[in-house]
Structure formats: C-alpha cells, structure tokens
Specification:
This protein is an alpha+beta fold. The protein has a single domain, classed as Fusion Protein Consisting Of Minor Coat Protein, Glycine Rich Linker, Tola, And A His Tag, Chain: A, Domain 2. 36% of the residues lie in helices and 26% in strands. Strands 1, 2, 3, 4 and 5 form a 5-stranded mixed beta sheet that branches. The radius of gyration is 25 Å and the shape is elongated.
C-alpha cells in the first residue's frame, strides 16, 4: 500500500510541475495580444492614419477652432496629445502649452472631430497609440 501511495505521489508531482509555464519571453501569444490591447505604444510598425490625410485633420481642427475664445499676445503654441484606440476613436485628449485658454479651445476643437482613424499596428494586430499635433496661433 505504501508503494502505491509513493508511486501515486510521484506521478501527481510530475503532473503538477510539468504544467507550469515560465513567464517572460516564452509567454503564450494570447497573453501578448491581451497586453497589447491595454498598452499605449509610441513606436509602432504602422502608424495610425487619419482617413483623409493629416492635412485634412488639421483643417478640421482649424474649422472647429474659435479664435475669439483665446486670449493672448504674440505667438502662442500648444501641443495636442491623444490616444488613437484600437477602434480608431480618439481618447485621453490633452493639451500642453503655456496659454490655458488656447489649451482649452484646442481640446474642444479636437473633441468635435467625429471621424475615426485607422489604428496603429504591430505584427498585424491593431494597437493603441499616442499621437501628437503641434498648434501655433499668432495674435496681431
């Protein structure tokens, strides 16, 4: 009877330890794909693209932008930063610049755009990516 328990214990321990998979570079592809869904990439194989081109995108920002809501002097700059999601929508819109009214209006103008982007890709999979657009406004 002791031999049976010993053999059973050895077989059970072999089974338990044989199914353990080390994580790291040998992760299952499914795990990597799940990680890519949540991660925001700045370096990709194929960059996100606006369907009508970047010039058309900038013209839409200009069209939605209301200069009279911005106060300032001289030349003001702002950098719009947003995430292009896997479905092509824009999220996490931020504006960085010294003029707060310019930043708020830039965010509002960008939020009005309803066209979806072609998302970025890595290894043929659609991924979230960060995109930056610089803006400059001159006051006369």
């Amino acid at each position: 009877m002791k031999r049976i328990f010993l053999i059973f214990g050895i077989l059970l321990s072999i089974n338990v330890f044989a199914q353990e998979t080390p994580l790291g570079s040998s992760e299952l592809p499914e795990l990597n794909i799940r990680k890519q869904k949540a991660e925001i990439f700045t370096i990709v194989e194929k960059a996100a693209e606006f369907p009508k081109g970047i010039d058309s995108f900038k013209h839409l920002i200009i069209k939605n932008f209301k200069e009279r809501k911005v106060t300032g002097q001289g030349v003001e700059t702002c950098e719009l930063i947003f995430v292009v999601e896997r479905d092509g929508s824009m999220t996490d819109i931020q504006a960085k610049g010294s003029n707060e009214s310019f930043n708020e209006e830039a965010i509002r103008a960008l939020s009005k755009i309803r066209y979806k982007w072609a998302p970025a890709e890595i290894n043929g999979y659609k991924v979230r990516s960060r995109y930056k657009v610089p803006l400059t406004l001159r006051f006369d």
